[in-house]
Amino acid sequence: MRGTERGDETMGAMLEIRDLTKVYPGRRGGVMALDGVSLTVERGEFFGVVGRSGAGKSTLVRCINLLERPTSGTIRVGGVELTRLRGAELRRARRRIGMVFQHFHLLWSRTVAGNVALPLEIAGVPRDRIRRRVAELLEWVGLADKADAYPAQLSGGQKQRVAIARALANQPELLLCDEPTSALDAATTRSVLNLLRRVNRELGLTVVLISHELDLVRAACDRVAVMHAGRVVECGPVQEVFARPRAEATRQLLAAAEAAGEEAGDEAYEPAARAAAAGDPSPLAACRPVAPESDPALARFDRAPWRLATERRWTR
Ligand SMILES: Nc1ncnc2c1ncn2[C@@H]1O[C@H](COP(=O)(O)OP(=O)(O)OP(=O)(O)O)[C@@H](O)[C@H]1O
Ligand SMILES: [Mg+2]
């Protein structure tokens, strides 16, 4: 269900970015990686961000979860202004955001189950609850039989599934994906994209997908923002933006994609759409976001000073 279709005005947007700038220090005044970015992503949306290399896409996602402090501007997630928070309050608010990276960022010394369990372990969730949740998550991403394998024994697509399961462990509401399929071949890309669509449709997470592959964005996203030189130059429904681009940067991206022979369309993803429409029962139904006060184990997450350090490690 799309946030905009709920008719529930009181819920507000999932993500609101206003006048965001990020300047990396350096010679000659530094690099202006973000230059006044404003965006709103509604709850339940699958939102795409596209742009050529260096446009500022990764800087934007790193600023959204405050892995990078923006130079100026505000970020609200679920109505909470992250940019005003520090310390424990910030860590608590950041629990609402999961992150998936191009190169997976798994811990090689841990098994698949150990990787997915890590955020829960550090949060002090009881062992039997961790075991159950990890089993549920691995079942849901189709890797139940790989629980005891190590990342080095997995294919790229399987590694990304583990990373997605880990990103879901903390029951976030917003999932940020920075080029999650760029290291994968076409068939694997499709299956990882279908998994992200299930995360969106079955678990109800809002997903922000950064990608330079326009066919992916066309197939998966409700709306898209086009970035160029640190700015959002165009934003709207995917079909509209790609069919009638207004910005020169969008036209150039489309022309480059056409020249590269991108032809995949929605029909490539039909099986997943049909499965979702048929209402496949989800073993993760119990993993939907739960108010911390209603779940003592989750309430402990609020006091977890490990989150920042752990997430920093994952981004390396
Ligand atoms: N840590 C940093 N220090 C200095 N400059 C940086 C840093 N990170 C990014 N930049 C610069 O900021 C600009 C935006 O970079 P960013 O990584 O956000 O682009 P991108 O759109 O994600 O590109 P790509 O598609 O290649 O991943 C670039 O000019 C880049 O060189
Ligand atoms: Mg990038």
Describe the protein.
The protein has 316 residues and is of the alpha/beta class. It has one domain: Rossmann fold. Helices cover 37% and strands 19% of the residues. It has twelve helices and ten strands. It has a six-stranded mixed sheet, with helices on both faces. A four-stranded antiparallel sheet has the order 2-1-4-5, covered by helices on one side. Strand 9 (223-228) and strand 10 form a beta hairpin. Residues 1-10 and 262-316 have low confidence and may be disordered. Bound molecules: adenosine-5'-triphosphate (ATP) and magnesium ion. Residues 24, 31, 33, 51, 53-59, 212 line the site of adenosine-5'-triphosphate.
Please outline the helices and strands.
Blueprint: E1 15-24, E2 31-41, E3 46-50, H1 57-64, E4 72-77, E5 80-81, H2 87-94, E6 97-100, H3 112-122, H4 127-140, H5 156-169, E7 174-178, H6 186-202, E8 206-210, H7 214-220, E9 223-228, E10 231-237, H8 238-243, H9 248-259, H10 270-277, H11 296-299, H12 307-315
Parallel strand pairs: 3-8, 3-9, 6-7, 7-8
Antiparallel strand pairs: 1-2, 1-4, 4-5, 9-10
